[in-house]
Amino acid sequence: MRSKGADAAVSLINSATTTVPKYRVEMIEVSKSFGGVHALRDVSLGVEPGQIHALVGENGAGKSTLMKILSGVVQKDKGEILIDGRPALIPDPRTAKKLGIGIIYQEFALAPDLSVVENIYISRLGGKFGLVRLKPLNAKAAELLGSLGLTFDLRERCGKLSVAYQQAVEIVKALSENTRILILDEPTAVLAPPEVERLFAVLRRLKSQGVSIIYISHRLNEIFKIADIVTVIRDGSIAGTANPASSTMDEIISLMIGRRLEAMYPPRRASIGDDVFRAEGIRWGGRVKDVSFCVKRGEVLGFAGLVGSGRTEMVRAIFGADPLSAGKIWIDGRRTQIRSPRDAVRAGLALVPEDRKAQGVLLLLAIRENLSMTRLPILTAFLGFMRLKKAKAIAEDLIRQLAIKTTGSDVKVSQLSGGNQQKVALAKWFGAGTRSSVVFLDEPTRGVDVAAKVEIYKLVNDLAEQGLGVVIISSEMIELIGMCDRVLVMHDGSLQGELPRDALTEENIMRLAVGKSGPAVSNRRDVNREEMT
Amino acid sequence: MMNRKLITEAPVVGPAELPRTIVRTASALLVKYNIVVVFILMVIVSSMVSDVFMTPQNISNLLVQVSGASIASLGMLLVILTGGIDLSVGSVFALSSVVLALSTLRFPLALALLIAILVSCASGSLVGYLVAGRGMAPFMATLAFMTIDRGMAFILSKGSPISLPESASALNTVFGTESLLGVPYPVLLMFVVFVYVLFTLRFSVFGRLIVGIGSNETAVLLSGIQVRRYKFLVYVLSAGLSALGGVISTARTGVGSPVVGEGVELDAIAAVVIGGGSLMGGKGTALNTLLGALILGMIGNIMNLMNVPGYPQEVVKGVIIIVALLLQGIRRPES
Fold first, then answer.
1. Contact (CB<8Å) A122/B222
2. Half-sphere exposure (CA, 13 Å, Cβ side) for A58?
3. What is the CATH number of the domain that holds B152?
4. pLDDT digits (tens, 9 = 90+) for A116-128
5. B7 touching chain A per CB within 8 A
6. Structural domain span for residue A142
7. pTM of the model
8. Is residue B217 assigned to a domain?
9. Residues in a beta bridge with A114
10. Inter-chain touch A529–B206, beta carbons under 8 Å
């Protein structure tokens, strides 16, 4: 099928060296820093032909940066890359492609308004007179699909395909470009289990065809299923390498977080009290379907689910950012109407949104100004002037309390590291002039290093100990397991189940997140059926 | 919570379901082709309120009147498909009109035409350079050229209309009075451009990549395609097509004028958007854009026939644009 590229590669190897190099791609002591912050430090990694090499690590550990360097999107400061044993320079994505390196991002790089076949061959559409020659392309694409055991309509617009199929299109696109090193960034984050199985089947076929696969994920159970070898990366360095056949999951987790699980998640001495927040029958558009739950004082409640399961939408709807289609809310036992974020804040809700830079903080304003935003009433003086001294005092107090690393309260938030930016986003809701009683944290530790994570966890504990209700939405199951008293799992906009602390395992969460489980499933199907008719 | 209805077999389309299915298919078709529906409705309403509307003379007038703006709209479509916008369209009308008239005073007609179009394309390529080469926001770059081109037209013409000389009378005859098989030449030109844009967008690499860029620019860029080249080209094409509009206007009136084409850019944007185009890029077709331009022209035409004065006409036009857009709102957002 892909014999041309493979033959070329083989002959290239043979002519270059007498002994075939062990690795298809080898990265040697690669370093990279962004503005003084080390993203990668002397990272070495080798991938053999026909090997599935898993790269795991917490968010912000440096996996993505390493892969961006390999695919030419980011340039390394130091180090060497060998392809088939020969040094390679990869100044841009085009060169990476020529070297046979293909990358499939979490956010698919497809044009939704173009057809499947047009997307696959987008860089080689041209025929005579600048016209698109679809016939031969269709034939070629069908052949490639066949070799992977896939079939689907090549004329369909990509925007109409399910994510699983879009991902398949991406893989076929990469293969059509004679990719010999395929990088997949969290490929299963958006897939349901049968789709994951299908993806694994495709990956195994590619493996048997000699393609080297770098598989980024933090779903450890998957890695045990598919990977030949696991490299763990933590805070920009290689923390260790493990063989899934002879290692345990706990060993890999310890490598990922650099300490024992207990040390990562500090103990909490909060007493759990009465309901501080209760929501009933929350609906939003077609994405959130009849969700009811409550949070108690001093409790940390987690929300798990796949990407797109409706968690973020639900919280935004509760907060009045995208007003509810239906549902009732009680705060401290009082029925409360929330039509806008202003109502929500007045009622005592706080939201730290998932996209920190776009929604959580104002990057171009000073820390002080960011922190003033949520407590304007106590900072406003006669004629609408701002009480600058007081604002500064509050800001400095919070900076100390939350250990935000900065030279002063006048520093722009854009100059802080991700973890400190997140602390600012959190600090907006505490201290003088705020009246939060329930805090919603959407992916609070995304893009934050391990040390900052521990500090954020301590902060969450502080809040719970002060008697607030804390709701955490997270895609990192380890985090939910480590932090929460109780986890609710969402699937396709509905609550799929509840897991008390002693039932919190990755398997249990995943099973619910993908829509499996006993009675809840049959209920859900009935609901769907009713909506259809 | 939910009353449980246990249905295990696949849903069967029963007799009671059938009308529903038909209604659903029909409404789906209506939604998909809503611009065609709006167009047909307007034709029906127009021919009911005015006896004159459906006469060959009026239809021919209407088509000639909209030809320039329609051609500019098709150019605008190319720009909007990439996610850009071109506010300089109307000023390019004026620039090409003045340059054409001035050139005919000195050069043979064919050369003068070429000069007018090349000058306009030069303006378009400067815009293209700023947008594609320097990463300037299309809105700002074309806003600047909207002023620059209009100003240049005034400077070159010294502020007054320039009559075409005797040597250029052929232009006036062809575009003003003559027709081919009953089709006036401006209309013919409009259809040629329409077919060109239709064909380009459907079948050419250039056209497909334009749609791709508007759809997901990063994706196209990461596929190793020179996105900048294509973004540059759409502005050149938009200016070139607008120049054709200016030429038609000059030929019909017999004067090169620095004030022609005022507001054409807004009509062109309106035509694309009424035709279902998205200002975010990636969506819009040649046929729908042409229909959008014809709808806009029809609004003016029918109100003229009904002796509605100019100012109320503007208001009605705005309202009809809003209605057309609201009708499109029925379209379900794709998830």
1. no
2. 28
3. 1.10.3470
4. 999 888 888 876 6
5. yes
6. 101-178
7. 0.71
8. yes
9. none
10. no
